[in-house]
Amino acid sequence: DEKRTSAYEGTTAASDDEGNILFYSNGRQVFNAESQEVIYDGLLAGNEVQLRHSSAAQGVITVRHPLDPDNYHVFTVDDAIAPIYGCNHFVLNKDGSLKNGPTRLGSYNTFEGIAATKHSNGVDIWVMVMSTQGEFNAYLVTSNGINFEKSNLFQAKAYSITGDYLRGSLAFSWDGSKMAITHGASWPTAERGLMLYDFNNSTGELSNKMEIAPNNQVLAGYDLIFSPNNNRIFVSSSYKNLSYVDISSGVESQIRSSFTRTGLVKIGYNHSNLEIGADGKLYYGSAAGLQRIDLD
User: Fold this and answer.
1) Is the pTM higher than 0.85?
2) What are phi and psi of 27, to 5 degrees?
């Protein structure tokens, strides 16, 4: 049933230790691995109030703690058109059925992005979301669930945004030492359309904010991802192109001046998610299907 399994933007999936799909979700419904059955129909990723799937760039993420392998933690966030649900937490069983939730985390509404990275101890997991007021919330998932006491919440490290500027994404570097955010921005604050932070993966603290989008071009960032060596950040645009900045210098002005358009256009219908595959290559969606770029 094609309509039943439709997806528009953010999706998530869970697999076993051998890589076999257990369940997947379009941000609102959870399906079994064979797409034959809706296991759960109550996730709360932003859906423009009416859609049967998420309408947020990232919208939903699933994490599993290695010392608590039977519980799958699913987090959902708002979409730009109707940011009303906030950040919600669910716990699903390995078959995708609901164990508990939804639990709304705070009373704030959110940006469309959500990302996760490992704690410095190698087992706990940080899940990061941002409020519409520009406050970052780093939730710490332990073997006992969310540890609110050790979570690092309400970090006022960005700016209040509304409307289409809520459309965008978050990403961590592969070593967990950096985090970046992209979203729409315009003159005279166009540099805010791509921001880079240091991330302390022991405490969940963000610091050393750098505003690194070009101030003389329209970025219109949608999704972003770090290169495998963490030296570049690739950004897909709502204007159907792919760009990157080189962050290896660590100097804000040099990073901004390194902005490069790859020459690839029409990488999606209006925008595209980006992923790095197990082969180290960059994958993105397009009207012609899944595409791959060699980053060497």
Assistant:
1) yes
2) 95, -15
